[in-house]
Amino acid sequence: MKQKQQVSHNGSNKRFKPNQKYDKTLDYLNSWMEKKGITWKQSIIVRKDASGHSVFATRDLKEDEIVCTVPKTAILSRKTSPLRDIIDEEELAGGMALTLCLMYEMTLKKKSEWWPYLQSLPQVVDLPMYWDEQALTHLEGTCLDPSTIVEENALLLEDYQSIIKPLFRKHAIFNEGKYMNFESYRRAAGLVASRAFSVDDFHDLSMVPLCDIFNHKSGSENVHMECQAEVCLECGSEDHVEHDAPTHDEHVANVKSISMTTNSDIKCKSELFNVYEDLSNVDLLLKYGYAHENNPFDVVSIKPDVIHNAIHDKKWFDKNRWEYWLSIKNTKLEEEEEENEEEDDGDEEDEELHCEFNAEGKPNHTLLLLLCIMFAKKEQYASWKNVKKLIQHVKSQAVTKQMKEACVIMAKERLSIYKDSLDEDLEGLQDKHLPSRHKWSLIIKVCEKRILHKVVEE
Questions:
Q1: 298-338+346-458: what CATH class?
Q2: Any stretches that span the bilayer, and where are they (predicted)?
Q3: How confident is the model at residue 409 (pLDDT cuts 50, 70, 90)?
Q4: Which are the contacts of 373, defined by CB distance < 8 A and separation ≥ 6?
Q5: pLDDT digits over 292-324, tens only?
């Protein structure tokens, strides 16, 4: 999220017009947003179809044009929720805190301050966490292991039973909400995972009305969220406020707004897509419930045991060098992690090695590290007992012919894990009546296999 010291807005407050048919849900939402001070330009319109809401331009938009503004007082967060004191007392934070707040508001229904917004949310975002055992089998062989989903669901249930459920008996406020159970908590968790934004240091993860209607499409983002992230931790003020132990409400007037701003010129009738992270198809499916067939940020992961199976019998394989690579673990090689070099690396001791080929079929730094170690001359390898020297070398290392041949061997081993061929998956995607869960699984398989074939063929 882009940080900005102050958000301004010069648009007028106009009602969204539903696309063709009257939509009571949107009309209800519009009235509520006006009361909350949420403003938007006449230049955008929200439409609703079978897949949900989306935002379109009603005229040509210029770069850096603010299309909507949401006061932070209108968002749902751990600090705006009636549960804020309980959240602080129980020391809850992040996704768990917001999930609890959202579940509570949803069970209040019309009694909730956010009900007009909440009733506009989808009943469920079809994330893998909701898939049944049969649907999960379609993911077998992909980077998204079905067992991982099962484990995550088990952890979610454990958190609910050990942390959340005891709060219902401990705090009387929960008597106001009905149907607070694991299913309602799980639904809220899915909505938080797919729609929440990290707003600022005070609010943390938050549900942001209107801003969460903008869809995401990898490589097609044309708007982004702007707000001040560094704020007072006591009251959320963006100003430098001098106060001693203030209450939540004393400085609420000092908080400002969140805005959605265009990244570039946008043509009339074009859909507005928000900037999220650069996510692989697996991450898109986990967080938002879909995948892109042409995702420039997609990757294929390859586990160390698969790599070992592929190369352990090759003449150039060296057991001692392999073990040395394993001992390094995920040393900070990525350029964006250089800023954190002073942090203690001890927490990474038990992490798995994340070896990947990117969408272009190139090995990531961790995999390139292995290749450098395996093919280095004795003198050079001996100098790499100093890990910093090794890291510096890897950053400037070009992929040699020998390394490419090793990558081909690894890619072929990775391809052997899938049950079906690329052609069979592509044929399956032609079925117009394919259930969405099966469709997303096939798209992930197709994209992963295309990357691996690119490694093999190049």
A1: alpha beta
A2: none
A3: very high
A4: 321, 324, 325, 381, 384, 390
A5: 998 999 999 999 999 999 999 999 999 999 999
